[in-house]
Amino acid sequence: MKQKDLQFFKSLAIKEELEFDGLLPITICHGSPRKVNEKLLPDNENTFEIIENNSNNYILCGHTHIQGKIEHNGKIVLNAGSVGVSLHSNGKAQFMILKEMQDMWDYEFVSIEYDTEKVIADLHSSGLSKKAPYWCKVSENLLRTGEISHGVVLSRAMTICKDNFGECNWPNVPEECWEQAVKEMLLEI
After folding, report:
1. pLDDT above 80 for 109
2. Are 56 and 27 in contact (CB under 8 A)?
3. Who is most buried in 28, 86, 113, 167, counting CB within 10 A?
4. Can you say whether the dihedral through the CA atoms of 17, 20, 24, 29 is positive or negative?
5. Who has greater pLDDT, 45 or 5?
6. What share of the chain is helix, strand, coil (3-state, %, to 5)?
7. What angle do CA 140, 143, 148 make, to 5 degrees?
8. What pLDDT digit, counting tens, does each position of 78-99 carry?
């Protein structure tokens, strides 16, 4: 990634407020309305606090790669899932259709099968599997099963790195730490 790419991402707003004539405004964000990598999870006090402090009744978010709805005190969080590497989806692409229904928001969660084997073949033909072999193995597993995220494996790899080398700083996680984490966490490698 180039410096100009990083600057572009840093320039983006963490959240946006969208308004459409006659409908309740919506907050859109990647993670949460206050932090791009903060997860909005069900039955989580932090999530409930964020919902209560949000001025709008609807929050559309992502980040977790888990499709779902959270309701709290009359407010709703909707997560569309992930088109590419959805968690808990049996390898399906997920998205959400948001539509107006009698001056209210209505939504439909959609999960569809797609050619994950082609995507996996593209990982290999692009050369990415040679540059980041264990990241690709996690991707392959996730594409096929919808289980075990990159973040979970990365966390384990960083723990292994800290145990072996005394410290570990992202993104400098040695491949042998990724390898061990993948062997521990994935049934097929």
Report:
1. yes
2. yes
3. 86
4. negative
5. 45
6. 40, 20, 40
7. 80
8. 999 999 888 888 889 999 999 9
**∠ CA 154-157-162, rounded to 5°:** 125
Q: Cα separation of 158 and 173, whole Å?
A: 6
Would you tell me how many other CB atoms lie within 10 Å of the CB of residue 155? Answer: 12
Strand 15-18: give its sheet, edge to edge.
15-18, 26-29, 58-61, 75-79, 68-72
Separation of alpha carbons 53 and 2, rounded Å: 36
Question: What angle separates helix 175-185 from helix 150-165, to the nearest 10 degrees?
Answer: 120
Radius of gyration of the chain (CA): 19
Helix extents (H) in the chain:
3-11, 45-53, 116-125, 128-131, 133-145, 150-165, 175-185
